[in-house]
Design a protein that fits this description.
By secondary structure, the protein is of the alpha/beta class. It has 12 helices and 21 strands. Bound molecules: flavin-adenine dinucleotide. GO terms for molecular function: oxidoreductase activity.
């Protein structure tokens, strides 16, 4: 299932990948679990959250087993756009309306996450092309610009390290008018980051099993039993770090996450002078404040990578998937609108991955059942947040008091509101964005 060597040519000759465009999958795997094991803590899922939790617990003396259905890094962790950001998901005005009192705590959590992950990269000496450039939420219309100005005020009022910037002065491409500059974080190669974490994990004392899908977790009075096709793990406690895939596990709280498929496209290399001539003179990641965001970033390979706009839901099992033509065509259309002088630049590669959306738009951590915990759902913002959340949960299980940042996202009960995202609502959001773009073009 996870042999993804075959990938096909799709829209306009773009090569589609069922894995990530950032890195090749590992040449060999950790063993599959066969037989029975006991341990202190079993971690299910080897993305940023699971690896970070396992490493922290091992550092603190726990006997840890990590079980991963593909290979560590298979999920969103090696596929994402590489924005290490101190932002929460969701429009700040909406968050302020929903969580006025909690917002400063949530902002502190997200800011600490960015700083933690930056520090983790340095501490583990992971070569992932990290550039501490910060990121900009940049408007493409006067209406969006007014909104970003207001958002900058809300965020600063709640303690975020951001400022409002004018596009041209700041070095954004001409079609971006300005927006919220998030000083913390920057850009990296998430494939190198995830596989670098995997290397550290494999060299650590954590017993790691790959191609080992957890089918069930059964809690009992003094622990939990984790079942995989070839065996079982008896653990005192279990961490679910299964993110978008949590829906497939019966033990995960019902309605906790909605898996959403998100796609990325990368161009052929662009002459740096041509890129600078668009006005993009400052190397910084750009995200638009549309209902469904667009993102544009330079890569160390001299290419431009862009994504999101059109999202897909998963009626059935998540499985292995490539981007679809309609989404790639729409993303390329968006790239041409934002970078008209680069309309001859060919898109070369596309891939995608599952993000875990929650109905609160906030990440979630808590206890799913006795001795079974979860750290999940960073709503497409987990590059910084997932390693932090996994580590905070690990510290809690190792006996620390609840950290204030963990408390900010902790769920007292594993109950979740019905999901708001569905294929029709995502299509409606995309349509609203395109109408807004069209109106702006007409007025310009
Ligand atoms: C296209 C895309 C772009 C994104 N861009 C950004 C970005 O720029 N910045 C940002 O902050 N975030 C971004 N994200 C989100 C970010 O990648 C995720 O939030 C983050 O990787 C989540 O990490 P995780 O460890 O929780 O989950 P994952 O990386 O998804 O890991 C979960 C792991 O659990 C394993 N698993 C699941 N079920 C089981 C089971 N039953 N048994 C065993 N193993 C199991 C999976 O195989 C997987 O490896 C993006 C995501 C995508 C897909």
């Amino acid at each position: 299932m996870y042999d993804v060597a075959a990938s096909g040519a799709g829209f306009a000759g773009v090569t589609y990948s069922a894995f990530s465009g950032w890195a090749d999958r590992p040449g060999d795997f950790a063993p599959m679990l066969e037989g029975e094991l006991t341990c202190d803590i079993a971690v299910v899922g080897g993305g940023y959250a699971g690896i970070a939790a396992a490493l922290r617990l091992a550092e603190r003396g726990a006997d840890v087993v990590l079980l991963e259905s593909g290979f560590c890094g298979w999920g969103g962790s090696s596929r994402n756009a590489g924005y290490l950001s101190n932002a929460l998901a969701g429009d700040p005005q909406l968050l302020n309306m929903l969580y006025a009192r909690r917002l400063p705590h949530l902002i502190r959590y997200a800011d600490s996450a960015a700083r933690f992950t930056e520090e983790l990269i340095g501490r583990l000496a992971i070569d992932c092309d990290y550039e501490p450039t910060g990121n900009v939420i940049a408007a493409v219309s006067p209406g969006q610009l007014r909104r970003t100005r207001r958002n900058a005020e809300i965020l600063r009022g709640a303690g975020a390290d951001v400022e409002f910037v004018e596009g041209r002065d700041f070095g954004l491409p001409q079609t971006f008018l300005g927006g919220v500059f998030e000083r913390a974080g920057g850009l990296l190669n998430p494939g190198k980051f995830a596989l670098g974490l995997r290397e550290v994990l494999l060299a650590s004392g954590v017993r790691t099993y790959e191609r080992t899908t957890v089918r069930a977790v059964e809690p009992h009075a003094t622990g939990a039993v984790v079942s995989v096709p070839g065996g079982r793990v008896r653990a005192e406690r279990v961490i679910l770090a299964t993110n978008a895939y949590s829906r497939d596990l019966a033990i995960a709280p019902k309605r906790m996450v909605t898996p959403i498929w998100t796609s990325l496209v990368e161009t052929e290399p662009v002459d740096p002078e041509r890129l600078a001539a668009t006005g993009w003179t400052r190397r910084v990641g750009i995200i638009t404040p549309h209902t469904i965001l667009e993102n544009y970033r330079p890569t160390p390979r001299g290419t431009v990578m862009f994504g999101t706009r059109r999202l897909r839901t998963a009626p059935g099992a998540l499985g292995v998937r490539e981007p679809d033509d309609a989404v790639v065509a729409d993303l390329v259309r968006g790239f041409h609108e934002r970078f008209p002088s680069l309309s001859d630049i060919a898109p070369q590669r596309a891939w995608g991955g599952w993000i875990a959306m929650t109905s609160s738009l906030l990440p979630v951590a808590g206890e799913a059942a006795k001795n079974v915990f979860y750290a999940i759902g960073c709503n497409g913002h987990g590059l910084a947040q997932s390693p932090y959340l996994g580590t905070l949960l690990a510290d809690r299980l190792a006996g620390d008091r609840m950290h204030d940042d963990l408390a900010a996202v902790w769920r007292a009960r594993p109950r979740f509101a019905p999901p708001v995202l569905s294929a029709p609502t995502l299509h409606a959001a995309w349509t609203v964005d395109r109408i807004a773009d069209r109106l702006h073009r007409r007025r310009a």
